[in-house]
Amino acid sequence: QVQLQESGPGLVKPSQTLSLTCTVSGDSITASYYWTWIRQPPGKALEWMGVIAFDGITFYSPSLKSRASISRDNAKNTLYLQMNSLKPEDTAVYYCQHRGSRGQGTQVTVSS
Predict the structure, then answer these.
(1) What is the rounded distance in angstroms from the CA atom of residue 4 to the CA atom of residue 77?
(2) What is the per-residue pLDDT across 79-91, written as a single tens digit (0 to 9) for each?
(3) Distance from C-alpha of 77 to C-alpha of 44, rounded to nearest angstrom
């Protein structure tokens, strides 16, 4: 059973860059399908942000306007999400997800 654990800074100022980590156990990020980042703003629905495939190819939601970047460290079996030019509306719980399994999420608040 795959397990995912997100971590991040918690509070970020507007215009700064966010860096999140998703530590994966129970499956290899290079051997299995797709690994997704999603988020849920307060009071809103889940939003698909982007995905990195087993071969490293990435796809992103057009709504993020190229602000997001997903990468990975194969040796650490870890995924990363970077997003620049943060805005208050980026405040959300951020999750990594794989084949129906999701981490517990990490709260990100964008505020000065």
Answers:
(1) 10
(2) 999 999 999 999 9
(3) 30
